[in-house]
Amino acid sequence: MTGPVPPDPVPLLSLRGLSKTYLRRDGLLTRPRAVAAARDVTLDIARGEVLGIVGESGSGKSTVGRMAMRLLEPTAGAVHLDGADITHLSEQALRPLRHKMQMIFQDPSASLNPRQSIRQILTTPLRLRGVAGADATQEMLETLALVGLGPDVLGRAPSTFSGGQRQRLSIARALLMKPELIVADEAVSALDVCVQAQIVNLFRHLRDRFNLSILFIGHDLAVVGVISDRIAVMYRGTLVEIAPTEQLFRRPRHPYTARLLSAEPRRGVLSAPAPPATPAGQHAPDGCVFSARCPHAADACRTRQPALAPVAPGHRAACIRTDLDLEGILPHSN
Amino acid sequence: MTAPGGGPVLRVRKLGVSFGQTSLVDGLNFDVGRGEIVALVGESGSGKSVSSLAILGLLPGADISGSAVLHAPGPAGDRDGIELLGRPERLLRPLRGKRVSMIFQDPMSSLNPIRTIGAQLREILALHAGLDGRAAERRAVDLLAQVGIVDPQGCMRLIPQRLSGGMRQRVVIALAIAGGPDLLIADEPTTALDVTIQAQVLRLLLDLRADMGMAMVFITHNLAVASAIADRVVVLYAGQIVEDAPAAAFFAAPRMPYSRGLLAAAPGLDRIASGARRLGTLPGQVPPPDERGAGCRFAPRCAWMMPDPCARRMPALEHVAPAGPGGPPHLARCARLEEIGE
């Protein structure tokens, strides 16, 4: 379950074997069965690192983000923040740590109270930190400037802003808590490409300036690739591969990652032969989650879910077919 | 991709759409050749969806001007074509699905949630192909197989809710092509789909084009998707076409400064390889319809802007370079094309 020793002796955030299982009843008279939204997810985020999580719908990427934030109780496993186990802290004990971790969502208007002015919205985090008066106003203005907004916004209501500006405001509010970690869940997915580019640049700037750690969750491989130092790939609740971004794009080591990369829209991609069609059926309950769709599945793949194992420095994959030479979408460097 | 001797399937001239005093789109001119895939790209509010809805008469309450003529394909096609704009609804309805179809981002907007897939396909086939009974049943199963439904017979008996998003979009495509249209207008058809499913649906659309010679207007905000599927790219900005180019030329060297900005802002894979992770940005934002000036609408955000002529006169959509005989034209709307160069 534990991978190689991470470069940072104490990662800012460490997820250890996190699982989330729901009981689902398919019919009135059938027994509920356990559905794993996330299964044994282990990963670390170093200080100042941007770690991307990519996956398709149902991959469990948001579940992991919410468990990392302690917004969702894991069924098993542990969350460590700065070396301390926070998995079972009470809400009260958690409160002083909450400001260290802030979350940004896809729809900023859902998290900005429409009845409050921007000044009121931005006062709340400052008050929680005990900052008031002239100091508060100054910090507010500095933070607004940081996210590219002027002092004129303070008197306005959230509804008077565009989607991109609202996302800047929710980032400003998060920054006013002086966080060490930001979990961004599809934070730029609803934005037009030009605005998306600005917010992506802003996240990277904030990381550089404040040594922030960012867990950047998204479905768009190109966006996540541009922003992230490392990328974790999830499929049906399981973390199947984690690697430095370029390395993952050049030489994926898990067949699902290779499938995902090959689907990335780009010029000429559709004139290449389609990947082999594989049935969507259920994988064997104990086997690898991708075995039912995997063109490389061997018998052993249907009996056991492989653990995430090192395949290269800083690169781990949950696949026993280490003999494969899978195709990436960037040329090999060597 | 225009077939030799065949004129365009759709010819749009001076299309304008306004609601009351607010003009959303004006002066749109573009052609869609037989079997050609034209990507209409732009940010929200650029007018790409509004234009296509107007062409199909699906924008009640709007003032629509100009012309959109649907031609039968091939050399033997009708010379005059059918004018769609201003055509009464009762005369438009028989054309929809038969000559031109439209699909949307949300497949459920085109499906009846409480009727089986089979019933919905049979209805379309009765309407557009005059098929019923066994013949309709057989054709419906064929169509579902053609769009890649693994168990078409089983699918016929299901209601849409029982299908995944990707399967629903396939069913919608089956309904759209059932009448054998010459033109499919697809408005963000893969935006709500996972990337592996998106790739399958894009492949399907390309296969249908190859099999049926069906032309397509593919509306998208995603330049990567446009680069994967389009023969031509038409860029809209603030209700106008600002560039119209063969896809290869466009992605190699876009000419209008807004197009350049759009491509520089897109998170391309090449950036990840080069380590140049910082994305290009444009200052400011798209002007709302009531704040469009007399000059170039992009001028306030343009790095190459000159007070004269850019802020004073609207540049025309002009040839970037003299098109070779029969070669596809590359048009851009910029007064300073020559100075800016490639």
From TrEMBL, chain A:
Domain ABC transporter: 23-261
GO biological process assignments: peptide transport; transmembrane transport
Membrane-related topology note: Peripheral membrane protein
Top-level taxon of origin: Bacteria
Main localization, broad class: membrane
GO MF annotations, alphabetized: ATP binding; ATP hydrolysis activity
Localization (cell): Cell inner membrane
GO cellular component, one term: plasma membrane
PROSITE patterns: ABC_TRANSPORTER_1 (PS00211), ABC_TRANSPORTER_2 (PS50893)
UniProt entry tagged with the keyword Transport: yes
Keywords, alphabetical: ATP-binding, Nucleotide-binding, Transport
Similarity section: Belongs to the ABC transporter superfamily.
Protein name, UniProt field: ABC transporter ATP-binding protein
Origin species: Gluconacetobacter tumulisoli
UniProtKB/TrEMBL annotation, chain B:
GO terms, biological process: peptide transport
Pfam families, A to Z: ABC_tran, oligo_HPY
Domain of life of the source: Bacteria
MF GO annotations: ATP binding; ATP hydrolysis activity
CDD domains noted in UniProt: ABC_NikE_OppD_transporters
Keywords noted in UniProt: ATP-binding, Cell membrane, Membrane, Nucleotide-binding, Transport
Membrane topology according to the record: Peripheral membrane protein
Record-annotated ABC transporter domain positions: 10-263
Subcellular location: Cell inner membrane
InterPro entries attached to this UniProt entry: AAA+_ATPase (IPR003593), ABC_Ni/Peptide_Import (IPR050388), ABC_transporter-like_ATP-bd (IPR003439), ABC_transporter-like_CS (IPR017871), Oligopep_ABC_C (IPR013563), P-loop_NTPase (IPR027417)
GO cellular component, one term: plasma membrane
Predominant location category: membrane
SMART domains: AAA
UniProt similarity note: Belongs to the ABC transporter superfamily.
Listed name of the protein: ABC transporter ATP-binding protein
Organism name: Gluconacetobacter tumulisoli
